[in-house]
Amino acid sequence: MRQPGAGLPERVTIYEVGPRDGLQNEQAIVPVAVKAEFVTRLLDAGLPVVEATSFVHPRWVPQLADAAELLAELTAVLGERTRQLPVLVPNERGLDRALAIGQRHVAVFASATETFAQRNLNSTYADQFAMFAPVIERALAAGADVRGYVSMCFGDPWEGPVAIERVVQAGVRLLDLGVTQLSLGDTIGVGTAGHVGALVGAFAAAGAGPERLALHFHDTYGQALANVHAGLQAGVSTFDASAGGLGGCPYAKSATGNLATEDLVWMLTGLGIEHGVDLEAVVATSTWMAGHLGRPSPSAVVRALAGAGADDPQA
Ligand code: HMG
Ligand code: MG
Which residues lie below 8 Å from residue 284, measured CB to CB, with a gap of 6+? Predict the structure, then answer.
């Protein structure tokens, strides 16, 4: 077993977003039984956190309109463990729906830019915080954990490059409102490694160290793994990823696939960083899901390993 290089964390938490971020952009509705099997297979593969769905307006994201049904189906298989699966809630209506069935982990999602706040949340940049404040307060009071996403942290398809100060301002607002972890999203995948280091450093300078951060990369320009490496060097140890590289945001022009879980696992294993995930089981899951979606996974690791047999080239 290799040892991680100097300055890299010994262990990383992979926060799996495939069933939510991965599927939310799919046009053809995936049957609820397939979604439930997707979630359980990912948990069985050792992924410690699997974000299951969103309690957003069903007209805004029709693919996830079955959120309550999915969680009921999962409860039949997973029992109380289902309550630990994070779900997105944009507003109090979403929180009510999530708390009504006892979910213990919710996530709000802010935008660092004005245009995306309007397009994704039908809110202004300033008003989104007023929308989230009672959600976070009530969730914490109910004993739930609240993650806060910030989108468009590197660039925005309508506004262009996004200033680091703007992202720090949005993130610190969410932390001040009480979120327990901040996930910084490169929604359209334009970020590069130096920018990642500078952003994490700016958060540390503002009092939010890397232990409070997660990084959420999309691989549009093929930079996601390089960006993860920059995040590791800056001390971040939670990374979002989507099985098979599924994903995109229905309200962000040019948001293509998320960083593939398999690509991340491959790199972490090579670096000697513990992650607890069974790569072969995730590849099999993504290959199975690709069959349901009718197109192959864009992940380089899935393409290399699917059908490669039992030999592990990293062993
Ligand atoms: P709105 O239309 O302004 O909502 O949408 P409203 O508050 O005016 O309410 C209108 C009606 O919707 C009301 O019903 C509400 O009850 C109902 P009526 O009285 O007319 O019968 N309603 C709801 N129903 C069910 N669940 C709800 C809900 N809220 C209101 N939660 C809203 C505002 C925020 C709801 C809408 O804009 C929305 O749902 N947006 C979600 C968009 C989304 O899910 N985007 C993708 C996730 S973000 C992402 O992918 C980025 C990320 O991955 C990180 C990254 O990559 O950067 C996280
Ligand atoms: Mg995303």
Answer: 41
- Which residue type occupies 93? R
User: Which residue is catalytic, options 249, 260, 279, 301?
Assistant: 249
Q: What is the CA(152)–ligand 1 centre distance, in A?
A: 18
The answer to whether 249 is a known catalytic residue is: yes
Tokens 């925005």: give the residue: 156
pLDDT digits (tens, 9 = 90+) for 245-257: 998 766 776 667 8
285, 243 Cβ separation under 8 angstroms = yes
DSSP 8-state class, residue 19: I
Q: Is 191 in the pocket of ligand 1 (CB under 6 A)?
A: no
Which tokens belong to 92? 């109090």
The pTM of the full predicted model, rounded to 2 decimals, is 0.96
Question: Domain residue spans in the chain?
Answer: 13-307
Distance 18 CA to ligand 2 centre (A): 10
Q: Which CATH class is domain 13-307?
A: alpha beta
Task: Give CA–CA dist 103/99, Å, rounded.
Answer: 5
Q: Which two tokens stand for residue 43?
A: 């948990």
Q: Rounded to an integer, what distance in angstroms lies between the CA atom of residue 125 and that of residue 56? A: 18
pLDDT by residue (tens digit) across 159-186? 999 999 999 999 999 999 999 999 999 9
